[in-house]
Write a structure and sequence with these properties.
elongated, 3 helices, alpha+beta, 141 residues, 30% strand, 6 strands
Length: 141
Amino acid sequence: MMSFFWVAVLVFAGLQAYIRFAPSDAENWTVDANANAPGTYPKEGGFRVVAEVGNAPDAVLDGFDTAMMAQPRTHRLGVVDRQRIYVTRSLLWGFPDYTTAALSDDQTRATFYSRLRFGKSDMGVNRKRLREILGTIGIAV
């Protein structure tokens, strides 16, 4: 019985280490910023918002960047083809959620997509985070 306990502890510790230290490549988290019309797109384990950005698309992305970087346990993973990619980790387990902000080719729309990496359900965390951040930069969702 005691050996089962230690095996379970080792398996748990191994999974936790994998979740915390699995490599994250920003290129795996880019989006097609031209694919959707303005609106909201709930997904299993994530939430996508496409918004018209008017005459100041870079200012919208800069405001989003400032708001994202103010989030706890968040850092910028990288910039790929002008898309900004962030990772936010949960407090207890350190599960990563990836958020991407990208402009369409004609720079009239911005796509914001926040989603989980592990599992199937994010319990609405990504939707809540995006709504709060977009609200701070004047985009109603």
